[in-house]
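quick one before i forget lol
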Amino acid sequence: MGAATIRGRGGRRGLPWLVLGLWVVLLAVAAPFAARLTDVQHNRATDYLPASADSTQVARLQDRLPGGESTELVLVYHRAGGLTAADRATARAQVAAVADRHTLTGRPPQGVPSADGTTLMYPVTSNEPGTDEKKRDAFVDDVRGIAHDTGGLSVDVGGPAPLATDAAGVYQSLGGPLLYTTVAVVALLLILIYRSPLLWLVPLVVAGVADFLAQAAAYALNQAFDTAVTGASVGIMTILVFGAGTDYALLLVSRYREELRRHELPYDAMRAALRGCGPAVLASSGTVAAGLLCLLAADLNSSRGMGPLGTVGVLCALAAMLTLLPTVLVLLGRRLFWPLVPAYGSEPKARRSLFAAMGSSAGRRPLTVLACGAALLGALALGVLNLPGPAKQLDAFVDRPESVTAMQTLAKAYPERSAQPIEVLTPAGRADATLATIRGTRGVADAREGRTGAGWTEITVTASAPPQSAAETATIKALRNRLDGSRVGGASAQQLDLVDTNARDRTVVVPIVLLSVLLILIALLRSLVAPLLLVVAVVAVWGAALGVGGLVFGPLFGFHGTDPGLGLLSFVFLVALGVDYGIFLMHRMREESLHGAEPSAAALTALRTTGGVIASAGLVLAATFAVLTNMGLVQLVELGFVIAVGVLLDTFLVRTYLVTSASVALGRKVWWPGPLFRTPDAVDAERAPQPVG
């Protein structure tokens, strides 16, 4: 049946077309805003850090100095067998060409030879790009075009600006590959799940529409509230739209397929499907949104901005899947399910249920299953002890770009000094005293006074230790302790502030997330034990997923560090998304109890009826986050891997075995202190909603 079947009372014929028309208008209005999202995306380290961080204040104060913010880089000339006179002449000529084409600050660049004679570096500073990232990238690219390899002499351009340019290049390349890969992965899984040549396309197109709307809404948030927009947050928003949106579509389509066997008209079947699974979808998306919004309590700009953007993604996916998807499904009719068309009055083909078998094993020995599962999660969580320390700036890339090659060459050739300056801003009237204090600080190899303006003086400090080493970190901390009233920044200081701010955010955000999710679950399930069970389960999943990361990041992936924000972001996403699936299972379990089923029977029925849909949704969500492991930044690879592993553990171990076996073992106590705990006749006390599944 097609559109002709949408007839009868209540505007059956007109309502779907009206909804479709409203979506067309909405997308037309959103189009100009979605196209501008990339214009407000910023990926500088200071865009991630809070305004209170020393390194952020240094960057902002430098903007007020004559010439504005400095763009620093270093040209690295290297020949393994030793530099020749011709090599040095080539280097001087190339550096002179850079100085002729661009406005450099300070005295002309001076070459610094290494002790072993293999390397020559030229530090270069310019205020020409200012704070404009596009101008910075153009400046770096032009310098790289001038300073090129010749006659066996290798030339690499490194330093803070080229590192930022290379990172920006990775973020800019995320949009297309990330979207295309996500679409391909979701399409493949939907084809396998639906086994239909057409049906899979509808949820995928609707998810794409939701992503387009989310981009427009993200731009509007930035304009209205100055919400931070980074490459990582936009990429994760897209992942959430396709992952969560496809999950909601799976639940709705599954229920719609059932209702088509009970109702002659697709319109009536869809109304019944929305009544049945709509409340659970609304509750689960609301829980995810609430968990993500807890990131607003973070100090780190990137984390705080990711909360609203993730929430926008989830809500846009929800709106599309509960309005546009039903509309399209109704208009296309039941033939969309071909070749497995659910005919009116037919019965679904009886198939052996894997989840029924799994539930039976959990029901026979619930305590044994629970103990074994908990022991497995605990063993996996021990892998956290093997996680590498905080990632250095040079460890941020999966593939080594030119800027990293340059800095690694410098670290080997100049072990006695850092090639990455520490920037100090001090009140202008105290510049001499500050300079003397800096030179008397342990770990400082050199310090030179720079620009003065707006009441501040810039001092460039060279440490005697490699960038982001323990010794250089100690020097930065010593400078901050000794220089009262001054600000200490620079690339290494920014990384230090990132680590410290993330540590602070974990202690603040994690309890807020747990409390907010717990309160929502208590309100939804009208129980205290069941929500606690779900929260403990998702926290255990988080620990186990991080532990698996600790077992593979170094030995298999070759990563030398862990992104400082991995713990917090993976916690927020795994708790919010894990509880999402828990709601589907426990909601159905509660409905079965309200219909008079005994606790153990209710738990097993809930698993049997929702297990397949939850498993499909879990596979899709894990696959979408796994797409991040193909990106070029260690931060995204680690986050995508941990969340994908966590979702799979939650779907096939915790939700299937542990929550079910714990519910069977606890019996009616799982609903304490609600009405289902107090009396078996609670079905008379509450109105039982339609089953979900």
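fyi The beta strands are 71-78, 112-113, 119-126, 154-158, 422-427, 444-453, 456-463, 487-489.
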